[in-house]
Write a structure and sequence with these properties.
InterPro entries: A-amylase_bs_C, Alpha_amylase, GH, GH13_cat_dom, Glyco_hydro_b, GWD-like_N_Ig. This protein is α+β, with helices and mostly antiparallel strands. It has 15 helices and 30 strands. A hairpin with a 4-residue loop joins strand 3 and strand 4.
């Protein structure tokens, strides 16, 4: 069996949380071991968390040492209590939580809004996935609660078979009353001592993790002085053991400086004080969302901010800037701008001098201004970067255009060798060639270094938050990973566009091969980028054009596009500057655009809306669907239950919050008007919201 130790740090207000003591690990029972039976009293004790977790015998044990800190701050400006939960536990940690109003500690679900990644569990509790810290060590969460509640109740779920609780009881953090101090916090440390010979593989790290993060906020001077002494002792002890990193020691010294400054402030005022700015900042602070360049926050809605004709005015940046406030009010969180560089073609997709940002869309200064204006209304900005090919400035001795000028004055070694049009001296291409311009050889280290430097320059100089990557079929996704790790975008999406599968001119029902190619590219980037879900667009075409809505469910009853396999990396769309606008290479079925938006704006993935559709007679309907998506917190990882996929109708329920149908056929969601409220309807589509 396992022994448990706990260590509780000094706190200005003690007793906010008991020790973590039970780690329940599911494992196989050794062969030949018989049940020992248990008394009724034992059974009664084991039911204290019934419905939340299940106890299992421990066969293998592993040493772990982790900490959990719960801090409670009053925010008078918003009349709220802010509960901040911080832990160094590894992996995905789910907080199973609720609130109570009295000493009986009866669980309740507080009213929305709830933190991101929160789901209701059996109408009795909430489950919130804690968000990873920026440094990658542990996770945290912030909970904003009304002052009517007296306590915060929770247990931690590490995986399907592992829970943490307080000796069989819920963890309980009392919330401050009107006369309590502004901050209270408690730090708890758990340690499981290994007495077995084999480490466990039940989901907890085999290596002991040091709890080296100490959170100290406020309190009276005696508590602060004690904390300082503890921290100094911690440094001394760890120096002697030589187990602390220099960064950790510096972090502790910074904490001591903060504590000393706070103690002096308290000494001057005789009572604990916090500035109004600190309190407002605490209310504004939200737990770090699960940010990844392949997903952003997971709740993004993308606007393509141009069409094929946008360059013609010569002042597109200024025209678009005037619409920033309107696009923000519609609910867009990201806007995709056109290619910014000097280009042989006016649209920007034949770049020449990458550092010359005076284009047909406007000047470099106007570009900076439009990015600044979108940032001011809370919208992130993507730059459209063309990395696959580049137009040359000069001809070589054979009259071939493969010598470059400007800051990146590459020679023909930067061009792939297997493109006969441009006679490069680089290595062979690792993708499909784009025959209108020299294809860049990304295997050359000097090319990669120059492109990484350029992307970082764009991030710093212009303020771009991420990238739309053009024609990524032309080069290996592993190079994209390299570029994204260097430039650290908030969001990135690649254009991997090739033909779907057809037999004798008719689209195949099974498009697994097509979406697999997109998935393979995303995998090559190590998931650092998402990709446009061309598969879903193509299947929507056939389903709507031919009244074959059965196509919208694959053989396993899931969405048949990338959103059915890797929804968090799928950027769904129905039209863009290539497929629609004045090019019309693959135009969405006319008159059925709102069926397409009813699908992508209610389903997982990150939906992208085309500029021409926003500022058209579809404006009101698109606005309503975006508002519904935000209100119901549909996100890139939402769950889809397809309830109908027949010749003339497709229907689905998403996260048990939204029901929808497209097609002329009949459908009403189960439960009728008692469970669902019609949110919007249009030609051949309806969307309901859970009552």
């Amino acid at each position: 069996m396992c022994k448990l130790k706990y260590k509780k740090s000094t706190s200005s207000i003690a007793g906010a949380l008991g020790q973590i003591s039970n780690i329940l690990l599911k494992s196989e029972k050794p062969k030949g071991e018989e049940d020992t039976g248990e008394t009724n009293e034992t059974k009664k004790q084991n039911k204290c968390q019934e419905g939340f977790y299940e106890e299992h015998s421990i066969f293998k044990e592993v040493p772990v040492q982790n900490s959990l800190t719960v801090s409670v701050r009053k925010c008078p400006e918003k009349d709220k209590n802010l509960v901040h939960l911080d832990t160094d536990l590894p992996g995905d940690v789910i907080v199973h939580w609720g609130v109570c109003r009295d000493n009986d500690k009866k669980w309740e679900i507080p009213a929305a809004p709830h933190p991101p990644e929160t789901q209701i569990f059996k109408r009795k509790a909430l489950r919130t996935l804690l968000q990873p810290k920026e440094d990658g060590h542990g996770c945290l969460g912030l909970f904003s609660l009304d002052k009517e509640f007296t306590g915060f109740l929770f247990v931690l779920k590490l995986n399907e078979n592992t829970w943490l609780n307080d000796m069989g009881n819920d963890f309980y953090a009392p919330l401050p009353k009107a006369n309590d101090s502004l901050v209270q916090n408690t730090r708890v440390q758990t340690e499981v001592i290994n007495e077995g010979s084999e480490p466990s593989t039940a989901g907890i790290s085999e290596k002991t993790t040091e709890a080296d993060k100490v959170v100290v906020q406020g309190g009276y001077t005696d508590g602060i002085i004690t904390e300082i002494r503890n921290l100094v002792s911690d440094i001394s002890a760890e120096k002697s053991l030589k187990t602390k990193t220099k960064e950790t020691q510096e972090s502790i010294l910074q904490e001591i400086e903060k504590l000393a400054a706070e103690a002096y402030s308290i000494f001057r005022s005789s009572t604990p004080t916090f500035s109004e700015e600190e309190i407002l900042e605490a209310e504004r602070l939200k737990p770090s969302l699960r940010i990844c360049p392949g997903t952003g926050s997971g709740y993004e809605i993308l606007c393509q901010g141009f069409n094929w004709e946008s360059h013609k005015s010569g002042r597109w940046y200024m025209e678009l800037s005037e619409k920033a406030t309107e696009l923000s009010s519609l609910g867009f969180t990201i806007i995709w701008l056109p290619p910014p560089t000097e280009s042989v073609s006016p649209h920007g997709y034949m770049p020449k001098d990458l550092y010359n940002l005076n284009s047909r869309y406007g000047s470099m200064e106007e570009l900076k201004l439009v990015v600044k204006n979108f940032h001011e209304v809370g919208i992130k900005v993507l730059g459209d970067v063309v990395l696959n090919h580049r137009c040359a400035h000069y001809q070589n001795k054979n009259g071939v255009w493969n010598i470059f000028g400007g800051k990146l004055n590459w020679d023909d070694r930067a061009v792939v060798s297997d493109d006969p049009h441009f006679q490069g001296r680089g290595n062979k291409s690792n993708g499909d060639n784009f025959h209108a311009a020299p294809n860049i050889d990304h295997s050359q280290e000097f090319v990669r270094n120059d492109l990484k430097e350029w992307l970082c320059w764009l991030r710093k100089e212009i303020g771009y938050d991420g990238w739309r990557l053009d024609f990524v079929r032309g080069f290996w996704g592993g190079y994209v990973k390299d570029y994204l790790e260097a430039s650290e975008p908030y969001f990135a999406v690649g254009e991997y566009w090739d033909s779907l599968g057809y037999t004798y001119g008719e689209m195949d029902y099974n498009q697994d091969g097509h979406r697999q190619r997109i998935i393979d590219w995303i995998n090559a980037t190590n998931g650092t980028a998402g990709a446009f879900d061309v598969t879903t667009k193509g299947i929507l075409h056939s389903a709507l054009e031919r009244c074959e809505y059965w196509r919208l469910s694959d053989q396993k009853g899931k969405p048949p596009g990338v959103i059915g396999w890797w929804p968090s990396r799928a950027i769904t769309f129905i039209e863009n500057h290539d497929t629609g606008s004045t090019q019309g290479h693959w135009r969405f079925p006319s008159g059925k655009e709102m069926q397409g938006y009813a699908y992508i704006l209610t389903h997982p993935g990150t939906p992208a809306v085309f500029y021409d559709h926003i500022f058209s007679h579809y404006h009101s309907e698109i606005s309503t669907l975006i508002s519904l998506r935000h209100r119901t917190e549909i996100n890139c990882r939402s769950k889809v239950q397809i309830t109908k996929a027949e010749r003339d109708v497709y229907a689905a329920i998403i996260d048990d919050k939204v029901a929808m149908k497209i097609g002329p056929g009949y459908y009403e969601p189960p439960g009728g008007s008692g469970r669902w409220v019609l949110a919007i309807e249009g030609k051949d589509y309806k969307v309901w919201e859970a009552a």
